[in-house]
Amino acid sequence: MEHTSAEAQFFGQEKIWKILLKIAPPVMLAQLIQALYNIVDSLFVGRYAESGLTALSIIYPIQLLMIALAIGTGVGINTAMAARFGVGKREAAQEFAGVGTALAGVLWVLFAAVTWLLLPAYAALSSSSPEVIQDVVVYGRIVCLFSFGLFFESIWTKVLQAEGDMKTPMVAQILGAVTNIVLDPLLIFGLFGLPKMGVAGAAVATVAGQVAAALVVMKKGRRRSPPWAVYPRRIAEIFRLGVPNILMQSAYTLYIFGLDMILSTFSDQAVTALGLYYKWQALFFIPLGAMQTCIVPIVSFNYAARRIHRCKVTLITAVLFGLALMSVGTLCFEAIPGPMLRAFTSDERVVAIGIVGFHFIGVSFIPMVTSLVFPVFFQAVGAAVKSSLLTVVRTVVLFVPLGALFAQFGLTWFWLTYPVTETLTSLLGLLFYRQFLAYPYVKDAPLLDKTHPTAVIRPSHPGVIVTIAREHGSSGKEIGRQVAEHLGIPFYYKEMTALAAQESGLDREFVSGLNRNAPKVLYNLYLSTKVVRLAVVAQHKIIERIAENGSCVIVGRAADYVLRDWDNVVKIFIHAPKEYRITRAMEVYGDTREEAEENIRRSDKARAAYYRHISGKRWGDAANYDLVVDSSQGVQQTTEQILRQLEDMGLTHPQAAR
């Protein structure tokens, strides 16, 4: 059965450049709108007061931290909801949405309170100018105290996106940006009879735009609060899924803050020059940022389908597109840095420092393409650790330490931090990519015979459906096979994953190895990726289709939970003492003792995480099963025990399979 879904045909067969050209423009528009928030304030504030422009550069890391917390939490909610929608659990998905509104309110209050108290100290740490310190406190307290619009809009937007509504969040972002742009000059300069508020006016315009965006998504994105009893469990899962995103985004906050601290030892103008770079960066990085976002679904689908060539082509295409687009930025930073800086400021000292800095930074745009594309590529293929490591190395390990080192030789040398950091990160990414190409799953892909025998579902008369979950090394698979033979009914193990692969269009080994090949850390985030959800949904469909065809024995894949509402389903969990399982693993798989112990630990941990992710319940909990049996008594004895249990339930005599 060949998979012919629109998604499989689009991501698996369409030309890569056509896919990118189709899905990139909406992403670029969204990022352009977000960039306007950063740019417009600076354009008008720079014309009002140079101290205000420096203040905006200093407060920028705090705003990034706030955005990381709000959006990262929203990502956790979005991921949890999407996973529940994928397996038909709409009610559970809506619980996350309801929890999100209350959680946004709590996060806003906590963030506002902490920043209100700490902003004066933060400002004094970042500048010695009384005017700059005052502007930092005024602007910062307004945007943080009234940040409820940002927090609620971020949560409600992710709720809508999880439900497939992309249009409403886009409208909200456009309205928010327009509101900010219109109000900025009116409130900063006091036009049309409005009060002249200066830097405070820019802050008010920013939060007004955020509130306007929140009001647009509120009507569709807000959900009824669920019972309070579900809050602890749901919040724990939201942060389990969202914290990696929060931490990665926060890394950018830390490195910009660190660089600001280094530059503040030279002058406030140096801090301002760096801040102006990030204003322009927001514009020049829009195409590259869109490329990062758009290659994820292409690479992840084709990696799961084991079309490694298309993964390589996507990476190469993204890098070439990125180089072509970023070369425009390099040209501008090298040829016209002065006019670019004077668009924001008339302070010639800022311009002089910035011109030198822009020349160095412009050179870094070329290696920056690969330093930013590689982490996204590894994220798409499920190598979350490599992806995170590249980001941490770039933002924490290299930027600030190198900045401090080069600053010892003078302000001019400080700017060398950028090209050196991007080059070193790219080289590390290239090393990781070479390792990726050596993975057996990747290296052997061109050699695979894709003409696997087609797996089929064997019809059987109604009677009993036995699902078996088992600890690694407990002989659960062999026991299940013997139970099926005694009852004369079909047995499903590898056939089930083969059928799921045919259903989804993904590679059989990828589906079979969802647990085995999953990363040891960030496991829940891996299970929540779109392509893994596609495999999980396909498995659920196949398990239900198998059950529709009559009596059978199914081993693994949380079949007991998938068929929880079906009649005549007997749910069994097979366990054994660890020493017994180690011995069995050494006998059956040829493992050394150390390998057996590691495989047992990893396999059981992955199965437990998978079961919890799918069901929200604890794997191996006796309450979830009809029979929990210790297989250390022997395979034959355990088989007989299960058959006696089925006989006691009146389920041992289904008609033989046709």
Describe this protein's structure.
The protein is mostly helical and 658 residues long. 74% of the residues lie in helices and 3% in strands. It has 27 helices and 5 strands. Strands 2-3-1-4-5 form a 5-stranded parallel β-sheet, sandwiched between helices. Helix 3 (50-86) packs parallel to helix 5 (130-145). The longest helix has 37 residues, at 50-86. The chain is elongated. The mean pLDDT is 84.
Cα-to-Cα separation, first versus last residue: 22 Å
Mass-distribution shape: elongated
Q: State the helical fraction.
A: over 70%
Strand order of the largest sheet: 2-3-1-4-5
Radius of gyration: 28 Å
Q: Averaging pLDDT over every residue, what do you get?
A: 84
Main beta sheet: 5 strands, parallel
Which structural class should the secondary elements be placed in? mainly alpha
Using DSSP, what is the number of strands? 5
- Which regions are unreliable across 5 or more consecutive residues at pLDDT < 50? none
β-strand percent reads under 5%
Count, helices: 27
